[in-house]
Amino acid sequence: MGLGDRHQKKDVEAALKRAEAAGLKVTHDKNRHRWGWVICCPCSKNVTVYSTPSSQGEEANKIDQFTGKHRNCA
Fold this sequence. Notes:
Elements: H1 10-21, E1 25-28, E2 34-40, E3 45-50, H2 56-70
Antiparallel strand pairs: 1-2, 2-3
């Protein structure tokens, strides 16, 4: 992720950094409602990350759960 690709919500940004550290790909889309995706390249699964989630804590938890399930994909 580049500097301009940061998520505006701190909790979500921290979860995205944890996903990247676990080897998942984080892609910024610049769509109005959708911020981008977290992608597991080996199995091609992904989770959508929203720009303005109703709860930033729930959005971060969703990303963390996905990261936990896909951290060891190979």
